[in-house]
Amino acid sequence: xxxxxxxxxxxxxxxxxxxxxxxxxxxxxxxxxxxxxxxxxxxxxxxxxxxxxxxxxxxxxxxxxxxxxxxxxxxxxxxxxxxxxxxxxx
Length: 90
Prior knowledge:
Layout: E1 22-23, E2 30-31, E3 36-39, E4 45-47, E5 51-53, E6 59-61, E7 65-75, E8 81-89
Parallel strand pairs: 4-8
Antiparallel strand pairs: 1-3, 2-7, 3-6, 5-6, 7-8
């Protein structure tokens, strides 16, 4: 007889693979149209000129060129100004 009540159950056994998020092309590198620049959850980086953002917040190149990162002020929902990274293709 078992001396532990529910001896065979375990809940936290499933493991999912990583989502491969992050910056795929760094500043100063060349990109072609449609190429993924940043994969992210939420808008941690904002799209600038020459880029577009998809439904899952992935930033793509809208034209051929060189990637450039810069910082700009964004006004949040609560009217607070915070700095966010802007991605541009020039």
